[in-house]
Amino acid sequence: MQYTLIIYGQKHMIYARDLSIAWSDNEEYWSWLPLRYDISSQELTDAAVLEAVCWLDVNGKFDTRELTPATTYEVVYVVKLEDTAYGWKIPVNLKLTLPDSKKRPQERSVCLEEHIGKRWVDISAGEFVTSLDNAGEISFSMYETNSGCWKGGLFVKGVEIRPKN
Predict the structure, then answer these.
(1) CA–CA distances in Å: residue 147 to residues 116, 154, 156
(2) CA atoms of 143 and 2, how far apart (whole Å)
(3) Statement: the pTM of the whole predicted model exceeds 0.85
(4) What are the tens digits of pLDDT across the range 62-75?
């Protein structure tokens, strides 16, 4: 998968257009909104805007060999839920799979309902320490595909891979 990698200091950003988003090619389900990456940047990028889906699946990949060795990194989805967002009572699942296939993926569930109407928030998919053992491609996903519950009002700016403080 080809991706746009924007590096701000030690932060690596994979924009929404470079993620795999189920149904993002259908305007009934997703649309795209140009915005600045952050206040200090002139760089424009597209955020994915969820109109309505009952099958949420947003995932991507990244090569850890581009990161600083022996550093703890976190993988976070940068998202926002508008005031009129709906369908978020059911938690979304987050998964981070490291290159070392002997280790189990990191998985967790998060309720996004508490973030409705707030600013951009970081939703952690997991963390890892760069080493020779886990050098290679990681994969990460945010999904909710079992409930059949329709949801809308989610903005996805991208996924940030950054050193953990």
Answers:
(1) 20, 17, 21
(2) 21
(3) yes
(4) 999 989 999 999 99
